[in-house]
């Protein structure tokens, strides 16, 4: 049943299916039961679509009174990003990899219950859909928490009211960074972990892990349980600093990945390799997944912050079933996630002009957009080249080889003039070109496949940055508005200074992540291009050797 409502804050649509609403605008809601935190309704201009449930209040009239009772509508599920409407959200399809999402059996309890508020992680900020029963392990159930006081419009904090009125950045809200910037995140009595940011020659950067290490992923092995009813692939994971292997399935990687998304708000966590509906135990798919898991792991171990995460250490070292359960529960109860993660950051004392920071962020945004387009273009070209190697090139060389064979056969049909030496040389030339066709079909596994693996990793990393940058943009907006309100006498200058100070923390963190991305990008693309060129040179050298051997057959005629 339709009900009337009033917009509490301005919301500007960003995607198809959304509609913009203005503060104090009268609205019609078609169904007051929100779906994933969104209402479907109509604004005063007759536009129909969805808008955030937390941005409006439903107007309820009391039949026995002239007083209108305005009550705030609940925001619904916390697992929805305002920038990604329900109409277009793509969820990972858990029915694809039954092996990856079956019961944890000996690895965990049958059921784990976690608070939804603890999982209030920006889904867009790392390129994946929100953690909810559709996307998480089927044995994890969510228990919604009532909205806290600071999320209510009845909050008496002027800063919070300013923030709610200005908010247009969904990832900014969902990540908890808004609450952090506005001072709504209470300081913890004891913070056991800290992550430092230093000033480098080019700006802020993460302080390096004092105990760097690497990690190998090897020997994907098909395993069974329940007397062969269940089949899965196990990988041997060996960190360099212990030398002791542990064995992990894809679902264990997926658990770690979700913990990382949940905790590290301003860090671009690379996507895991994709799932597949069929052929999960085919050799080519297993090999491809292993290659991409290795790249994922290399990025993890090279990141100064991610590599020091306690949950990551647990993943790499724990081989005991009971200890795994305890460590898993401890990681899932970690309080220093989302907004609280910002409290763990130690930033430099150097002053940075916020306008300069904003300009630098804008430059990186333009760079990331262009790089993303270029990576997609190279991915398309390389994929097309693989297709040609496997099909067109092989077929053309086989046709050429068959044509030479046909010539050789024709020359044998008049025995007095058959010239066996020439015929044999031409026939061998035909076989050489057939072999070269097979060489072309085999070559992508040595060069193009590895290039596509690296490009896929960077597609995921780049896809995370737009929403991470929104965090900084949202913080900038809060600083500007708080200063305006301070100038107008509507806010204490001390409170405005606190917002500016906390915005500096967000800015330093984003710049440190940008710096790490550039540093790792230079290493990765140098390695990628060198490896590709080396394999191309070796390939064409083998082709030349085949042709030279064939050519020498004609020298003896």
From TrEMBL:
Its main location: membrane. Residues 149-158 have a biased composition (Polar residues). Gene3D superfamilies: Arfaptin homology (AH) domain/BAR domain (1.20.1270.60), Phox-like domain (3.30.1520.10), SH3 Domains (2.30.30.40). Keywords: Cell cycle, Cell division, Cytoplasmic vesicle, Endocytosis, Membrane, Mitosis, Protein transport, SH3 domain, Transport. Residues 76-95, 114-160 are annotated as: Disordered. One of its GO terms (molecular function) is phosphatidylinositol binding. This is Sorting nexin.
